[in-house]
Amino acid sequence: MYSREQVKTITDKIFNMSGTDSTEVNFSSSERSGTRFANSSISANLVQYDQQLTITAHIGAKTGSANTRDFTDESLRQTMAEAQAAASAAADRQNVPELLGAQTYIEVDAALPSAKNFDPAARAKMVRTSIDISKKMGTVGSGYIPKMHRTDCQANSKGLFAFEEVAEASFILTCRMPDGSGSGWAGTTGIKDISMIDPVEITEVVSKKAVDSQNARALEPGRYTVILEPRANARFLSLVTGVFGGGGGAFMEGKKPGDKLFSDLFTLKSDIGNKVLRQTTMLNDNTPAAPVTWLDKGVLRNLSGGPNSTDPKATVNMSLLMEGSDLSTADMIKQTQRGLLVTFFWYIRGVDNATMLSTGMTRDGLFLIENGEITRPVQNFRWNMSPLVGYNNVSLVGKPVPMHMGESYDGDNTGLIPPVRIEDFYMTSLSPAV
User: With 90 as the cut, is the pLDDT of residue 272 above it?
Assistant: First the structure.
């Protein structure tokens, strides 16, 4: 990857070559790599490198662009000439926006050496550790350890230099019994400090879930108190974040900042600049992002789109933090008289847009809680629930941890997400799977 100083050298060189009214440079370089393992052995080591630079030349009301993947001086001069030729041949644009000048961003060290240097050998060592533990506990492990290292910069001849370098990794693990009778899942995602990834703890937790989930018995469908572990809560939370970005539909009609929408235990922020998340501190238009509180104890504080937008300087999923407490999942179980511990939600799909009613299934460990203890595994359920109802029924929250909110584990969508306890969660039917 390219350092800030190296990118600055390249962009300054381009601006010195330019004889046009103004010039923009869009720079990107990236490494996407990962180690997959299945049936307790490594099945693939993948790596993809990419780099690209786009020069946009402005001549009066005309603009033209050209791309290159070769950053030598000769290539940069040729690309500049192509951009200027494209601008000269272009028609005049109406209402050409003025270029953004220099900006000041919150400083975040988003690319630590441990993540940048997280190579196949280090990942293989984690895999070996995990496999040894799963074998000892009588389970079969399959997992994914992705790594991303990326440098992006948007610069122009008026002083803008919007540079960011980010690096992160994740550890995702599923363990099953050899005969398929039990399954468990755990993981941590979007980690910029590799020392936070503990393959020993993760594998022990996952293998124990797989062992303990055997011989699950069916419960009657109905409404249950549930404790959603961070991964399940992250997926459930992803269904409702659009409300704060102007996508709330009928639910948000007439709603405005100051209205009480959810439980007192639901506080949601874009915590720009926090020390845990790998993150950007700039918006899509390259203006600085700033911390924003979307919900404060269930009260709407900000909107990023729609007729009642307060135009906060962040988008909803940037450095997302759902505030919690210091309680672990185990602590929350001790405080629960009767309910279900949910490890994982699978195949969530919308049912009704107006109410945000959604459906999905539990997977990889569903357990009955009685008198503050896990007493036995239960058969998986299909559920029907709207997050608009669910986050009104929050009765306990735990400690936030890094967790990706999307269906996959790649991309920029990791937040700090706690386990939550939700009352009257509707389990509609049995789902015969582990």
Answer: yes
In whole angstroms, how far apart are CA 219 and each of 207, 226, 379? 24, 14, 7
- How would you class 136 by CB atoms within 10 Å of its CB: exposed for 0-12, middle for 13-18, buried for 19 or more? exposed
Which among 231, 188, 235 has a CA at the least distance from the CA of 390?
235
Cβ–Cβ < 8 Å for 368, 342? no
Checking DSSP bridges between strand 222-228 and strand 338-352, what pairing results, if any? parallel
pLDDT per residue as tens digits for the range 297-349: 999 999 887 667 777 888 888 899 999 999 999 999 999 999 999 999 999 99
Close Cβ partners of 297 (under 8 Å, ≥ 6 residues apart): 264, 265, 266, 267
Task: Residue 62: count other Cβ atoms within 10 Å of its Cβ.
Answer: 19
Rounded CA separation 292/269 (Å)? 6
Give this prediction's pTM.
Answer: 0.93
Q: Which two tokens stand for residue 249?
A: 């539909």
Question: Quick one: tokens of 4?
Answer: 């800030």
3-class DSSP state for residue 345?
A: strand
Condensed to tens digits (0 to 9), the pLDDT of residues 136-193 reads 999 999 999 999 999 999 999 999 999 999 999 999 999 999 999 999 999 999 999 9
Segments of 271-391 assigned E as strands:
292-296, 299-300, 320-322, 338-352, 357-370, 373-377, 381-385
Beta carbons within 8 Å of 120's beta carbon, 6+ residues apart? 33, 35, 45, 47
Joined together, the tokens standing for residue 413 give 């969508």
Which of the 8 DSSP states describes residue 17? H
The CA distance from 83 to 24, in Å, is: 10
Neighbours of 189 (CB within 10 A): 27
Q: Which two tokens stand for residue 47?
A: 């790596």
* C-alpha torsion sign, points 131, 133, 138, 141: negative
Angstrom CA distances, 317 to 47, 233, 235, 290, 321, stand at 27, 15, 13, 13, 9
How far, in whole angstroms, is CA 102 from its chain's centroid? Answer: 29
Residue 233's contacts (CB-CB under 8 Å, 6 or more residues apart) are 322, 403, 417, 418, 419, 420
Q: Which residue has the tokens 């992705």?
A: 146
